[in-house]
Amino acid sequence: MEKQVIKVGLMGLGTVGTGVVRIIEGHQEDLLKQTGLPIQVEKILVRNKDKNRSIDVPIEKLTTDANEILDSPEIDVVIEVMGGIHPAKEYILTALEKGKHIVTANKDLMALYGDEILSLAKKNHCDVFYEASVAGGIPILRALSESFSSDRITKIMGIVNGTTNFILSKMSQEGADYHEVLAEAQALGYAEADPTSDVEGLDAARKMVILSTLGFHIPIKLEEVSVRGISQVTKEDITYAKNLGYEMKLLGLAEQNGEGIEVSVEPTLVHKSHPLASVNGVYNAVYVHGQAVGETMFYGPGAGELPTATVVVSDLVTVVKNMKLQVNGLGIASSYNEKKLKSDDQRFSKYFLRMIVPDQPGVFTQISQILAENEISLATILQQPKSKEKKAEIIITTHRASKQSFTMALAQMEKMEIVSEIKSYYRIEGGETE
Amino acid sequence: MEKQVIKVGLMGLGTVGTGVVRIIEGHQEDLLKQTGLPIQVEKILVRNKDKNRSIDVPIEKLTTDANEILDSPEIDVVIEVMGGIHPAKEYILTALEKGKHIVTANKDLMALYGDEILSLAKKNHCDVFYEASVAGGIPILRALSESFSSDRITKIMGIVNGTTNFILSKMSQEGADYHEVLAEAQALGYAEADPTSDVEGLDAARKMVILSTLGFHIPIKLEEVSVRGISQVTKEDITYAKNLGYEMKLLGLAEQNGEGIEVSVEPTLVHKSHPLASVNGVYNAVYVHGQAVGETMFYGPGAGELPTATVVVSDLVTVVKNMKLQVNGLGIASSYNEKKLKSDDQRFSKYFLRMIVPDQPGVFTQISQILAENEISLATILQQPKSKEKKAEIIITTHRASKQSFTMALAQMEKMEIVSEIKSYYRIEGGETE
Which of A230, A270, B63, B166 has a CB 3.0–4.6 Å from the CB of B68, allowing a cystine? Predict the structure, then answer.
């Protein structure tokens, strides 16, 4: 039976859902030209039908009962933009069981249950597209799954959380304090009242799970990502970083080599010559290194009603095209590579280290000895007195060292009497010194 | 009849062709996983079978006769990486007549005859993919045709020529002279012995034809692109630009609004806060502004054996997938929007203007009067004496003015006695002053 019109069930009518309705209604002609079929939002699942909204939707399209979408034989595609794990997961699995295709912006769900959802979709010949779940308006998942399909991706680095990038950019540009800028971000609506998920790196970690799973063809689990947030980053750290030629970024890193893979999210000093260093404010960017293609970067808005909704609708267009071609579900790639996580002695990085010591002879000798014993070689050293306290501050950057060595050296230094305080340490990315 | 293996005819075994052979041979397993079919390079068209090559190819695969590829019923896909218009065009048209799919990296051909080639392909249910023709390793054509398919693209700006970007970056970073750096670029192989096509902007113009045709759904002709190269750019211009907060870039610009479209390639002052300003060396970047998605940018290597070859092979993978789905040629979009080119009084830009005048009272009054009469308002003014010659140098930046007004004012100033010399003028892109 040839479809005459594609009917969509929309779950969620927040900012993204509203954008989706606006685009589908406002671009009917374009969509028709692209897919050959009119597309229509048939039902919208909301929590409250009587709420005041920024968009006019006929009340009969609204429902508070998910089954009006899930049980409707007329609805071909479910767009899930309600967020959260439950009941979004159950709705999506039920929709797939009923042969409906899914477009979702739900990073939490895809990071935690992507495997289960994609397997069921493949089995039922359904599409699941989730471009909007990572880096809002940036078509990075499509690039990874299509454009670089014949390449071997060795490294993915992402600034994939707009809230933390806004905070760090502001701290860097204005020399402002973390708590000050967080409060401003909350006032502007860039950070939530409870900012934990953003500032502690959890949101970024979920996105890195999605990116690395797709890029490496290996199912990565959230608990395999090592995560450190930005709440401990001080303006002093940022100032020292800048003086050394770096910008502080909450950087997602996924890397694979012959030994295995590593995925992490942590505040990182990114050298100013690296294209990621100049990604500021709420913008996102994903840097991909492929064995053949070399360095590429994708930059764009990380969130926002229209950017995210645009990407949702372009996923919808792909679903409709696939329906016409009767190829839904065929594009879902299985993870075919074996997973081998690197141990800490296989994870190498350059490091930045800042500590307070007594201002007395011989201190640095002891510190440099510990580093040497752990096979860490120094790249730059800055020692300066903190006159008031008869203390000195030491800022060190290292050449590449294993995480194991660095952690060990840190632990040893913390126990030393002559180390008053380890102020901070960060990974370093980019720049010439290797 | 189900295909057991996909046989490819390769036309050209230069750097890109060599890369294609390497990737196809080196990634057999990956390609098989992605397409379900083994892919094999069956014949390679070369000029000289006995030439020494950096790659080992069995001599029986080489041919100097294009018909061995075109007439072979076994060959499903022709990859054209020989370059040039003739005979590449004839080969491609013949291949399409015979139902073979095309992957090409040939920007000259696609810029000049893209319409003819794509129409024939559509008619014959053949694919033509040409991602590698613009910005080597950057999957920008796929992004425009798929990811932003539901958006309305309003602006495309590109640094799409690596040679000129290398030259301008070097001039900016080292304060070096144009001719000096051009010679260095030639020595490094980044510029050809006859660099005209690159430095005069023709290469960039061809790429902008391809980008704007696809992005705006309007067939743009090469002669509709206004083009100015970089051979007149001096190190003084670059220094002044930097002091004002700009980087000099050879910028391709394609813009559309309610009044019409404009496409140009010219040296442009790009504000340092704009993501394009930090694209240096032989890297390319394409900035896309969509009504919904907002600002996005795609960054990557503009050329090179492996980046370009990777993109060629990913186009090949798409062709093979389409063959399995029997949907070849269906994805070729017709240009459905009406073409209306903006006239010069509809093209607005900020401008930079540098001139030499006698160092005497009243000069600036006369110049500012001419600008005012042409409805051009000043943003910044710098006047400084050139002591040796009793002359002064005036550097002006303007707010947005029409190209017609600016051209008129320029012509009037050139006739003025008090203007000794108009040194240079450039468009300005980015920055806050509008």
Answer: B63
In terms of CA atoms, which chain A residue is nearest residue B273? A278
Q: Is the complex ipTM more than 0.90?
A: no
CB contact under 8 A, B293 and A310: yes
Give yes or no for a contact between B300 and B135, defined as CB atoms under 8 angstroms apart: yes
Contacts by B414-418 with C-beta closer than 8 Å and gap 24+? B416/B366, B416/B367, B416/B370, B418/B357, B418/B358, B418/B360, B418/B363, B418/B366, B418/B367
b/e sequence A398-427, b meaning 16+ C-beta within 10 Å? beebbbbbbebbbeebeeeeebbeebbbbb
Q: Catalytic one among A43, A207, A249, A403?
A: A207
Pick from A392, A376, A372: nearest CA to A384: A392
How much is the pTM? 0.87
Indicate the fold that domain B6-135+305-325 takes in CATH.
Answer: Rossmann fold (3.40.50)
Q: Is A386 a catalytic residue?
A: no
Architecture of the domain spanning A6-136+305-325 = 3-Layer(aba) Sandwich (3.40)
> Would you tell me which CATH number, out of the four given (3.40.50.2300, 3.30.200.20, 3.30.360.10, 3.40.50.880), belongs to the domain B140-301?
3.30.360.10
Break chain A into its structural domains and give their ranges.
6-136+305-325, 140-301, 344-429
Kindly list the residues from chain A whose CB atom is less than 8 angstroms away from the CB atom of residue B148: 139, 310, 314
Q: Which fold has domain B344-429?
A: Alpha-Beta Plaits (3.30.70)
